[in-house]
Structure formats: structure tokens, C-alpha cells
Amino acid sequence: MQQRVEFHARADRALHNPQIRSNFRYAMDGLIDKRKRSFPDLDELNRLRLRCAEIRVNALSKLPELLEQLEACCTKNGIQVHWAETVGEANRIVLDIMNRHNAKLLIKGKSMVSEEMELNHYLEQQGIECLESDLGEYILQLAGEPPSHIVAPAIHKSRQQVAQLFKEKFPDIPYSDDVDRLTRNARHILRRKFYEAPVGLSGVNFAVAETGTICLVENEGNGRMCTTIPPVHIAVTGIEKVVEKLSDIPPLLSILPRSATGQHITTYFNMITSPRKPGEKDGPDEVHLVLLDNGRSRIYEDQELIATLRCIRCGACMNHCPVYTRIGGHAYGTTIPGPIGSILEPQKAGLDRYGDLPTASTLCGACGEVCPVRIPIPALLNRLRFERVRQDHTGVTRGQGSQRDPWEARIWKGWSWMHANPAIYRLGIGLAAGLRWMLPKRLGAWTRVRSAPRLAAKSLHKLAREKGLDHE
Amino acid sequence: MSLRTGFPEQPARVYFFGTCLIDLLYPEAGLAGIQLIRREGVEVIFPQNQTCCGQPAWNSGYRDEARAVASAQMACFPRDYPIVVPSGSCAGMLRHHYPELFQGTPQHKASLAFSDRIFELTEFLVQVLKISLSDVGKPVKVALHVSCSARREMGVAGDHQALLRQLKNVELVEPRRREECCGFGGTFAVKHPEISAAMVEEKATELVATGADTLVSGDCGCLMNITGHLGYRKETLQGSHIASFLWERTNAAES
Ligand code: SF4
User: Fold this and answer.
1) B138: which of A78, A165, A412, B35 is 20 to 30 A away, CA to CA?
2) What is the tally of structural domains in chain B?
3) Total domains, chain A
């Protein structure tokens, strides 16, 4: 129950923070609108969603084989592949590479998997400096905060809040809340570091099995810098990011940025297939690919839940989620927030830890409607609601049954008995209607912001009986 | 989950599934729905053994408990008539989730046949009965709130609009962010009351901002949530189920 208290406490704090509320509302309205305008043709959108879902379903259906193929192709091309079952293993792999090169500075492009690994924290304990080069991530590193959105990590901050932060951290630079100026300042600070850092790290958007190609989508050019300037490049990814063929990339690339930010194409798209070859002018001497499992292969075991792994991390589900819009990303307490976080994170870490998250949804369906790879998020939320209270201890989800509250279970048993026995039900509603004057005016949390509903004097059952509508 | 592609001819007889919320709180909406159908010359049967579609337990993860209730419902509608449901949410449960609920049980096939007979009320009025309405009411401005299940699961937002647009004295408006959930979500409102409150507050504000006299919705869950909050705020905007509203506007004789 610890988690419940924490989630509610964090959500309440966010709800009562007008700045958080307005920052998210403003940003999400903008993102929803941009996405909508980038898909003027709904038939095209639906065809593309079908195609992209198919690509991801296909890849997941042969995940073990594709991962082996990916490893073989990467190795052939000179990319060193590492397997990590846990985040601990992944962190050690990165540390070993750093140590081998005697590297004390790691420059990072945006990577949610490195957040999942808490890599910065780990390396800093080993005396290694990590520097985020994505503007949003850089802002958060200055502020000492985790991301609140997977595409726009600092979206919870307004321009003025960022300007204030820069003023505190860099008193020598004149204050400005002009976005271009802030960006210029950050770029100026970061640029030097790119040349100093012996190792660069990036995430991966897609890894192509048939060619051993790492694909990276980004807007700031920092991703390209991280993967080309330092002599060593480490890419970290979850094992689910693999696709079968190079021809799978164009449809995915066509839907991802539009779903995320409404852009038809990102400013940069990087395809990395090998370290620098003799005679090439740039590129790192060494490229490493770290493939992280961390609970993913357990999700893979379940025929329905495997759909969770289709995700291409566009963020559209959170942008459209009315709950996320109200409470923001930090309230979830997970690396990935929002609807996808609410299905992914409890499966990875266990329902005993994040058992509340699947309930933090009205099941309105907005997420599933926009998901570019058609993950049936509401159905999976429902499934996890089942997993969190089921008792039979079958299935693969970690922490199943952990949220079963004996009182709640008894209430549902009683509810079920009453509604499966029509005579009891009719008796019940008859009594309730007869005694409705006795019903309380206050009904817990419901009436804190609502007047109490009034029971009707006669039920529809009774009205229908009176009108003789009950015979065949 | 797919939306319907074709519709049957007008049947002689239909079943009516009233839903538990209508039964307890809005019976006049159920009756209005029945009367709208009967006026088109279709006989309506309301089986007395129906109770609730089972959605609350289904959405709370209590699948055995939901299945017991669902089984009892399927037994209430033995003949092959269409089943009309005055709620997008309950219709969505009966139509899309029963087959999931009975997956892997001996009743799975029966649940598929059952779910195929489910029609949301406005869908049935527009697509099957091809109803034509004549407005006898005074000019009024109406704000429509389409529930998330009516919009996304059942795909009947257009049918809601089409019905209201037939009424010549009704000015139809929709609030800003009309596609956003009102924050009800069944047990969500109980488990996460603060988030639910934040959602209904904003929804109510947008609805009031339309300047409408009446809020119309096809789902009593949303109505109970939104009008409950409007009442708490002492707003003048009144809520009405779309069936009650249509019946009142088009029925000169009785009321
Ligand atoms: S679940 Fe779908 S919508 Fe959400 S981030 Fe993943 S791909 Fe995007």
C-alpha cells in the first residue's frame, strides 16, 4: 500500500499546483493540435497505423531470432554487442567501456533507457561525469529532476522557469526568457564538451535486424554529435526496439514524428551501421550496442500483454491522456509516465510496486485511439486490473494478486451475487427507492465537488411493469 | 473491436436493456427511449430479469464476478431480437467486452452472437429506424457531451449529432475539447476522486462557457458526474439524457 499513498500524494500535489496544471494543459493542447494538423487525411493515418502495427507485431513475433540476426549483422559490421539482463548489468557494461578508455566524461543524447538504468547516478558514484546534451534533459540535469515526458522531458517547466534556472546556475550570463537566446546559451556551454568527451551515449529508436543498423530520431543535432564526435559511441536500447527489415523504417519514420510533435520529419535522422571505416572523415572508432532486457522478456511471454512492447515511444498517448494532463509525468513515479507507463512499468517492476497505476485511468480510450502502433492500451489496463487482484497465481505478471484487498473483494462478491439474482436485485432497488428519503446527502469523496445523485421514486423496472412491457 | 459496417432492416420487435444507472436514477430516460422506439411502430420488450451489464466489476478486475452477472444478462434475452441500450458505455460492454469476458469459456460462442445484437439507442434510431423527428419545442441552445464509449467504442457521436440536428428549434453547440473525458470512469471516480474532480471541473467550465441552456448526453454516468458538479456550483445549466430530451421535444400529446 506504500505505493498507493505515494501515487495519491504526488498526484494531489500536482493537482494543487497551478503552475504544473497550466504548463501541462498548455503544452498538451499544443501537441494535440499539432498532431491533428499533421494527419489531415484520416484514411491515410489509419492505413499507416495498420501498417506500423503490423511491422511491430511481426518483429515481436520473431523477437529472439531477430535479436540474434541483429547481433550477427552488427558484429560483422564492427559494432560490439552486449547483452544485459538487468539494469545493474547494463550499467556495469557502460562503466567497463568507460574504464577501458580511462574516460571521465560521458556526453549523452536523449535516452529513456539510460533513465531506466539511472545511469547518470551510477556513473557519478564511480567518479564519472555525465552531461546531458539534449536541451530538455540538460535543463533537468541543472534542476536535478527526472523527465516528466518521454519526448519533451522538461515540458513541466515554463519558459520563465527555465530562464530563472539558468540565471541561478549561470549568474554571469545575462537573464533572458527568450527561447532562442536560452537555446543559444545552452549550445554555447555544451559545444565545448562535445570535443572534450571521450565517450558519447545515445538511445535507439529502431534497430534493423537485417542490416545491423541503429536508427536515431532527433531534432537538435546533439544526437549526431554524440554519435560522431567522441571516439567511442555507446548506444543503449531495450530488446524490443528491433525491426526485421530496412524497408520497415520508412512507414515508422513517417508516423513517429507526426504522432509525437506533429512534425513530418525530424530535423535529424541518423542511421549508424558501423564505426568509422578507413578513409572516412568522421565517426567514432568504436561503437557498442547494449541490449537491455529488464523484465521485457517476461512481458513477451504473454500473448496479450506482449502488445505493450510494440511501443515506439512517441508520447502521443500521454499527450492525449486527460489524467496525465492533470497530474503531469512526475506523479507516476516511474521512468515512463502516462498510459504507456501505466501498463509498462507495473509489468517491469511488478504490480506490488506500481499496482495503482493501472487504476489511474478512466479508460476513456483516447490513448488507444492515437497510438501509432495500435496498442490497445485500455484493454491492457483492464487486463492489469485483473492481474492485480487475481488469486489463481497463473500467468507471468510479477506481483499479481498483490493489490487484492479482502474487503473490496467481498464487496464485489456481494455486488455480483445481487446482480446475478434478479429477484434480489428488484427487491434491493425497490427498498432503495422506498427509503430514498433516508439516503445520505454526502457520499464520501463524490459529494466533495458534486451534489448527491437522487434516486428515482420508481425504477425503470417498475415503470416497464406498469406499462406492460415485460412480456414476450 | 470493430465498428458495425451494415445495419439490419427495421425489426418488428426489440429488447430494451435499461442499464442500472437509468433504473435507479434516470428511469424517465429509459422510458423515453422505449417510447421513441415504439412510436416508430416497433414493439419493445423490457425483460424484468435484467440488472446490470457487469461493467463495474469487469473494469475493476473482478472478472469472475463480472462473468456471473453477464451470464445472467444473456439469459434474459433469449430470442433473436436486437437489444437496444440507452448508453454508449453499457452498450460498449455488452457489444465489445462480453466476448472478451467469455473468452475460453463454453459461453464464448453465445457471447459473440449476443454481442452482435447490441445497438446503442441513438445508433438504432438513426441507422436502423431511420427516424425522422419534428420539433415541437421552444428555441433552445443545447450543448452535447458525447461519452468516451459512445464516441470511441461505439462510434455513435455522429448519430447523437444527427438526431439533435433534426430538431429545428435546437441550436446545437459542442464545448471546447469536446473529445476529452468528463472524469467519471466508474470506479475511477471513487479510487481517484481528486483527479476525477479536476477533470469534471474543467469539463463543466467548458460546457457552461458554451452558453447553452441544456446539456445533453447519451450516458447517465457522464450526466450524473457533470450535473452533480454543476449542481454543486449552482450553475443554471441543466442536464438531460438524449432520450428524454428527444422525447420531450417531439411529443406534443403526452409528456
Ligand atoms: S504506447 Fe503508443 S502512443 Fe504511447 S508512446 Fe508508445 S507508441 Fe506512442
Assistant:
1) B35
2) 2
3) 3
* Ligand 1 interacting residues, C-beta cut-off 6 A: A 311-317, 340, 370-373, 375
Could you count the other beta carbons within 10 Å of the beta carbon of residue A112?
18
CB–CB contact B60 A385 (8 Å):
yes
Residue A1: what pLDDT?
Answer: 46
A248 and A346 housed in the same domain: no
**What do you get for the CA distance between the two ends of chain B, in Å?**
38
What's chain B's length in residues? Answer: 255
- Rounded CA-CA distance B207/B219 in Å is 16
Q: Is B117 helix (H, G, I), strand (E, B) or coil?
A: coil
What is the interface pTM, i.e. ipTM, of the complex?
Answer: 0.96
Residue B133 lies in a domain: no
DSSP lists the bridge partners of residue A236 as: A290
Q: How many CA atoms lie within 13 A of A455 on its CB side?
A: 19
Sign of the C-alpha dihedral computed for residues B191, B195, B200 and B203 taken in this order? negative
**Other CB atoms closer than 10 Å to residue A77's CB: what's the count?**
16
Of A340, A367, A374, best ligand 1 pocket probe by most atoms within 8 Å of the beta carbon: A340
Q: What is the dihedral of CA A156, A158, A160, A162, to 10 degrees?
A: 40
**Which one-letter DSSP state was computed for residue A111?**
-
The one-letter amino acid code at B102 reads F
Task: Give the span between the Cα atoms of A58 and A242, in whole angstroms.
Answer: 10
A356 and A244 part of one domain: no
Element holding A28 (H helix, E strand): helix A18-38
Identify whether residues B111 and B173 lie together within a single domain. Answer: no
Per-residue pLDDT, A446: 86
| A285 and A397 inside one domain | no
In 3-state terms, what secondary structure has residue B15?
A: strand
DSSP string across A207-243: EETTTTEEEEEESSSHHHHHHHSSSEEEEEEEGGGEE
- The position carrying cell 503552475 is A19
Q: Answer yes or no: do A237 and A361 share one domain.
A: no
Would the pLDDT of A4 be above 80?
A: no
What CATH number does the domain containing B234 carry?
3.40.50.1860
Q: Residue A421 burial (CB < 10 Å; 0-12/13-18/19+)?
A: middle
Q: Which three cell numbers stand for residue A300?
A: 513477451
For residue B152, give the nearest of A359, A365, A413 by CB distance.
A365
pLDDT at A419 over 90: yes
How far is the CA of A252 from the CAs of A53, A54, A244, in angstroms? 9, 11, 12
Residues spanned by the domain of A370: 1-38+308-404
pLDDT, mean of residues A335-355: 97
| pLDDT for the residue numbered A468 | 87
> Could you tell me if B177 and B103 lie in one domain?
no
Q: Is A294 helix (H, G, I), strand (E, B) or coil?
A: coil
Label residue A61 exposed, middle or buried (CB < 10 Å: 0-12, 13-18, 19+). Answer: exposed
What is the number of helices (H) and of strands (E) in chain A?
A: 22, 10
For A201, the enclosing helix (H) or strand (E) is strand A199-202
Would residue B104 count as lying in a domain? yes
Q: Which residue of B has its CA nearest to A370?
A: B152
> Domain containing B217: what range?
140-254
Q: What is the pLDDT of residues B146-191, one digit of tens each?
A: 999 999 999 999 999 999 999 999 999 999 999 999 999 999 999 9
One domain for residues B214 and B243: yes
Q: Name the A residues in 386-445 with CB < 8 Å from any B CB.
A: 386-390, 408-409, 412-413, 415-422, 425-426, 429, 432-433, 444-445
What does the buried/exposed string (b/e) look like for A340-354 if buried means 16 or more CB atoms within 10 Å of the residue's CB? bbbbbbbbbbbbbbb
Give the confidence band of B6 by pLDDT, cuts at 50, 70, 90. confident
